[in-house]
Amino acid sequence: MATFNVPVYDTPVTQNRQFQPYSMTQPVQNPNFTQQSPNSPAVGFYTSTPQNINSVMQPMVNPYSDTNCKLDDLTQKVNMIFDKMSTLDELSNKISTFDRAVQNLFKTVEKVSKRVDDVEQGMNFINEKFEDAKKDVSDVKGVCAGIREDADSANDAIFRLQKDLDELYTRHIDLQTRSMRENLIFTGIPMHDKFEESETTEKVLEKFMTEQLKLCRIAEYDRAHRFGKEYVERYPDGSVKFMTKPIVCRFRNFKEREFVRKAARELRDTHFGISEQFPKEVNDKRKELWPHFQEARRQRKKAFFKRDRLFIDGVEYCPSKKDEEKRDDDVPG
C-alpha cells in the first residue's frame, strides 16, 4: 500500500517541521460513496487511471491543510499572547517600581506628618507663650499709662516748683541787692598791716574820705571791714609797694551812701576805686554787659546800669546771640 508524507509545521506543540507517513490502508470516511466489498468497486470510485487516483486523493489532503492553517493561526495567537505577557511583565515591573515609590512616598508623608505634628505642637506652645506675652504687654501698657499719668502730674508739679524756685531766686537776689543798697566797696586803699583790725580799717577809711574824696565831713556809717583776696602792689624792681584788700562799708542810710559815691569823681586818674556792692549773680551779669557799656560810652551815648540791666540812650540793651558768640570768640582759650 502506498504512503504519503504529510508535512508537519512548527507550532507550539511541535517545534520542528517533519514529514509523517500516511498509510493508504487506513479507512477513509467519504459520504460520496459506500464501499460494498474489497473486491467490488464502489459507486463513484474510479480506480482505472492515475487521474482517478489523484481525484480521489485530493479530498484526503485538504483536511490536513486546513489543520495546518489553524495551527498557524493558533501559533500567531500564542505569539501574540506571549508578546502581551511580556508587556504584562514589563507593566508588572513598572507597577512594582511604582509600588516601591508609593511606599517611599508613604514613609516620607508619615515623616512629614510627624514633623507637621511637632510643628503644630510648637506653634501651640508659641501661641500660648504669645498669649501670655500679650497679656503681660497689656498689663505693662496699663502700668505705663499709670506711670505716664504720674509722670505728667510730676512734670506739672516740677514745673510749678521750678516756677516757684525762679520766683524765690529772683526774690532772693532782690533781697540781697536791697540788703546791700547802703554798701560801697573801696579798692586800692593800702593796708596798715597784714592783720589789720576793723577799728584800724574804719580809721583808714575816714582818712581816705577826707584826703582823697575831699569831703567836707565824714559820712555816717555803721561798720567797715576788709574782705576778699589780698593784692600786692610792687615797684618796678619787684619790691613790695603796699598790700591791699577791698573795703566794704555800710552807711547809715542811702543818702549817706550817695553822698560818698558822687564824690568818686575825685578819684579819676588814680589807682583808687569806688563801686556799689551787688550779689555775685548781679556782678556776673554786669561783667557780661560791661563791654557794651564801654562801647556805648566810646560812641558818646548815654549809658548806665540799673542793677544787672544796661540802658543805652534810655533803652534797655539785650545782647543778641550773635554778639554773645563774638564775645566768646574774643575770649582767649
Gist of the model:
By secondary structure, this protein is an alpha+beta fold.
Please trace the helix and strand order, writing H or E for each element. Answer: EEHEHEEEEHEHEEEH
Query: What oligomeric state do these chains adopt?
Result: single chain
Estimate the mean pLDDT confidence.
80
CATH topology of one domain: Alpha-Beta Plaits
CATH superfamily of one domain: L1 transposable element, RRM domain
Which class best fits the helix and strand makeup?
A: alpha+beta
Q: What characterizes the major β-sheet?
A: 4 strands, antiparallel
Strand order of the largest sheet: 4-7-3-8
Tell me what you see in this structure:
The longest helix has 130 residues, at 50-179. Among the domains are: 182-277, Alpha-Beta Plaits (2-Layer Sandwich), CATH 3.30.70; 278-333, no CATH class. The strands form 4 sheets. It has a 4-stranded antiparallel beta sheet with strand order 4-7-3-8. Strands 9-10-11 form a 3-stranded antiparallel beta sheet, with helices on one face. It has 333 residues and is an alpha+beta fold. Helix content is 54%, strand content 16%. A hairpin with a 2-residue loop joins strand 9 and strand 10. The model is unreliable at 1-26 and 28-48 (pLDDT under 50). It has 5 helices and 11 strands; from the N terminus they run E-E-H-E-H-E-E-E-E-H-E-H-E-E-E-H. The protein has helices at residues 50-179, 198-211, 254-261, 280-298, 321-330, and strands at residues 3-8, 18-23, 183-187, 221-226, 231-234, 240-244, 247-251, 273-276, 303-306, 309-312, 315-317.
